[in-house]
UniProtKB/TrEMBL annotation, chain A:
The lineage of its organism: Eukaryota, Fungi, Dikarya, Ascomycota, Saccharomycotina. Pfam families: SPC22. InterPro entries: SPC3. The keyword Transmembrane helix applies. Essential component of the signal peptidase complex (SPC) which catalyzes the cleavage of N-terminal signal sequences from nascent proteins as they are translocated into the lumen of the endoplasmic reticulum. Essential for the SPC catalytic activity, possibly by stabilizing and positioning the active center of the complex close to the lumenal surface. Essential for viability. It is a single-pass type II membrane protein. One of its GO terms (cellular component) is signal peptidase complex. Keywords: Endoplasmic reticulum, Membrane, Signal-anchor, Transmembrane, Transmembrane helix. This is Signal peptidase subunit 3. Belongs to the SPCS3 family.
UniProtKB/TrEMBL annotation, chain B:
Belongs to the SPCS1 family. It is found in: Endoplasmic reticulum membrane. It comes from Babjeviella inositovora NRRL Y-12698. The chain crosses the membrane at residues 23-42, 49-70. This is Signal peptidase complex subunit 1. GO terms for biological process: protein targeting to ER; signal peptide processing. Component of the signal peptidase complex (SPC) which catalyzes the cleavage of N-terminal signal sequences from nascent proteins as they are translocated into the lumen of the endoplasmic reticulum. Dispensable for SPC enzymatic activity. The lineage of its organism: Eukaryota, Fungi, Dikarya, Ascomycota, Saccharomycotina. One of its GO terms (cellular component) is signal peptidase complex.
Amino acid sequence: MFSLLQRGQQVSNQAISALSYIAFAIIALFLAQLHFDNAYNLPSQIANIETSTNIRYSYSAGSTSAKGKENSKIKFDIDTDLSSLFNWNTKQVFVYLTATYPGKSPESSNRVTYWDKIITDPKDAKLSLKSVRGKYSVYDREFSFRERNATLALEWNIQPWIGPLVFGTLEGGQGFSFSKPEKPRK
Amino acid sequence: MDALPDLIEFPIDFVGQRKANRLTNLLLFSGAALSVLVGFVSQSFINTIYAFAGVFVLTLVAIVPAWPYFNKNPVVWLKPKKIEILL
């Protein structure tokens, strides 16, 4: 601390240490707030699920042969309030609707995303959407979904200003089964 | 070229160095705690950053210049003895 330069360096170094403590404090408070706001057990309602299955032949629909590929689409209503996912360290929230169904082997499980939304403003955190069409046409690695039963659930992912990404699933998942393809197989 | 580092040296005395070190830690770490509190109470991440930036600038102003406060105990050197040169 003898000269001007040494004092400048000492102050900057200690400031960087202090910033790292600030970062840890913010992350700890942010995670604690999510816990106390009950963010991991938020309710949601998914209703009026309509699915349709088509056989499509284009490469972009996952088809790699003349046989084509079964593509599943969905229409649904959702009603949920994600306000408690927003606190001082939340930059944005990514909400996505997934279907989880058993895979080819008994112990495996597949998950596909039908729809998603990015919420950047806490004012938009209350979702009440009617007759939404899924954004994505979904296909499996196999040719067919084989009319399996699936669970439709809303999941969320918080992207914070600093700290780890936080993932969670909303309560209120709904079961459905993939419908038979509308067009008969060739 | 050796003159430039000497020109901007602005030294402080030993007691002043201890004072400066303690004051730096006090200001920065209590300021950090205060910034987190400000951000938490206002529920705004950016307020924490602004508050800490303010604390940092304040600390720079308080510590970096050679304030007279840091130069109150100058080192007193012994006076040189007269040496008689015997011829």
